[in-house]
Amino acid sequence: MQALKIEGIRKTFHQTEILKGIDIAIEPGEFLILVGPSGCGKSTLLSMIAGLEQPSSGRILLGERDITALPSKDRDIAMVFQSYALYPNMNVAQNIAFGLEMRKVPKPERAATVARVAAMLQIEHLLERRPAQLSGGQRQRVAMGRALARAPQLFLFDEPLSNLDAKLRVEMRAEIKLLHQRTRTTTVYVTHDQVEAMTLGDRIAVMKDGQVQQFGTPHEIYTRPATVFVAEFIGSPQINWIAAQRQGAGLAAHGLELGLNGEQAAALSAVGGECLYGLRPEALQLAGEGLPGRVHMIEPTGPETYLCADTPVGRLTARVPGEVRERVGDAVHLRWVPEAVHLFDAGTQRRVA
Ligand SMILES: Nc1ncnc2c1ncn2[C@@H]1O[C@H](COP(=O)(O)OP(=O)(O)OP(=O)(O)O)[C@@H](O)[C@H]1O
């Protein structure tokens, strides 16, 4: 049985369709990421799962229960927001216990839960403090503690780390991951950050303009992006594109023949004509021969270097291990293997093969 099933969800606000038919199903204990650019509808979808917003059509099932029309409080869902929404006049312990108190959980049991959750999040020493006396990261922990105290059927997170500084964000990300490994509570997590999506998700739904462009594991999304948008959205530095045309049985750009793998070559006949030939920066190697180019920019990051070169087929970025000897203006050659190529039909924007 699936833990959460989203079936044909549509939502229209003032005659504009914001969600255009969303279908997603996840297994018990899975960590689902909803990722996409601002305005793609991910928060709206999360609000519907939470019961804060009603879909125009479609159903949401939590386990066997159809929760589409159920009030938020009866759904057995806990939500952690971007703004921590802690009660300013209550201390940390009271904030964590609040939901339990509302549901008339006896006092000794509440105290035991607060102690368990505080130990899990390592905030035992903060229990007497008010939210104003906490740092951003500590407040975020308390907000998570409040959700954890309820042991809900489903956790929802709406960009919980976006108000934290870069270092804390990385720490809290790891903490959320560990917490999920320990509790295995089914989770839906909204973010626009591709690194959060890749590192946290068991499965990722990449959204754009109210639709799911691809739903899959991080590995599937990265190694076999279904659309041009997904290929561009996930991966840093961004994938390189070469605009290519069909030439006989093969593919060419600016008179240069471009290598294809067998699967792509076989599928090429179904393509209208224009293609986008995608190469991830790590697929490009500096070599003694290959595509000639001139170095435009060099960005060392420490463990690797991004080398950007102007070539007859456009500007390409290579991601090479360690340091490079090349300097701006030097002549270089770039190589790649056909297995590394991501090929898309420029017309449909969909993957070929
Ligand atoms: N209550 C509402 N009334 C009208 N339009 C709305 C309402 N809520 C959301 N929208 C619109 O729906 C679209 C999707 O919004 P949503 O907040 O779901 O996007 P998002 O992907 O979460 O973006 P962000 O990352 O910026 O939060 C936006 O164009 C937004 O303006």
From TrEMBL:
Gene3D superfamilies per record: 2.40.50.100, Nucleic acid-binding proteins (2.40.50.140), P-loop containing nucleotide triphosphate hydrolases (3.40.50.300)
Record-annotated membrane-spanning stretches: none
GO cellular component terms, A-Z: ATP-binding cassette (ABC) transporter complex, substrate-binding subunit-containing
GO molecular function, one term: ATP hydrolysis activity
All residue ranges annotated as the ABC transporter domain in the record: 4-234
Keywords annotated in UniProt: ATP-binding, Cell membrane, Membrane, Nucleotide-binding, Transport
Biological processes annotated in GO: carbohydrate transport
A Pfam family matched in the record: TOBE_2
The keyword Lipid biosynthesis appears for this protein: no
Domain of life: Bacteria
Protein known as: ABC transporter ATP-binding protein
The species this protein was found in: Inhella proteolytica
Lineage of source species: Bacteria, Pseudomonadati, Pseudomonadota, Betaproteobacteria, Burkholderiales
